[in-house]
Design brief:
By secondary structure, the chain is mainly beta. It has 1 helix and 10 strands; from the N terminus they run ββββββββββα. The longest helix has 7 residues, at 146-152.
Length: 156
């Protein structure tokens, strides 16, 4: 039996750099306030709710990034799925509004064990230049440089 501990009674699961898409690129219309509850694609087939609290700021506007502590709803369901540098889409329902890059795994249940390639935290990082961050809705993943590709096609 899995015991679920309320987020108010446990430390955060991860710390991450959360970058919101600009409104023009399909992001939120207004800023997100600390305490924002978004959906997070923690595995390719698992979307879960999470509570975000921003470090050193109250609001994060579309197109901006901030460090956040994130509590996932049921981390026990997807153990060993987090590592530094992992990219997680931030969604509001089915709409992707941003990207979270894990900078620290706090919950040991979620920490990915070492696989002989060095520590899980020394894997290649997916940290990105968030200025050109967009989301590829056709392939359900964040990607860079989409704005340049779109401007090169007249039918977009």
């Amino acid at each position: 039996m899995v015991t679920v501990v309320p987020i108010s009674q446990r430390p955060p699961d991860v710390e991450a750099l959360v970058a919101f898409l600009p409104t023009a690129a399909g992001g939120r219309k207004g800023p997100a306030r600390t305490g924002h509850r978004a959906d997070h694609l923690v595995q390719d087939d698992y979307l879960t709710a999470g509570h975000q609290e921003y470090v050193d700021r109250e609001w994060v506007a579309p197109g901006e990034a901030a460090t956040a502590r994130i509590w996932f709803l049921t981390p026990e369901v997807y153990p060993e799925t987090m590592w530094e540098g992992k990219a997680i889409s931030v969604q509001e329902g089915s709409r992707v509004v941003g990207l979270a890059i894990v900078t620290k795994v706090i919950n040991p249940i979620l920490a990915r064990p070492s696989d002989g390639l060095g520590s899980a935290t020394s894997r290649p990082s997916s940290k990105a230049a968030f200025g050109s961050l967009t989301y590829d809705h056709r392939h359900h993943r964040p990607r860079q440089g989409f704005d340049q590709e779109r401007s090169a096609r007249s039918h977009w």
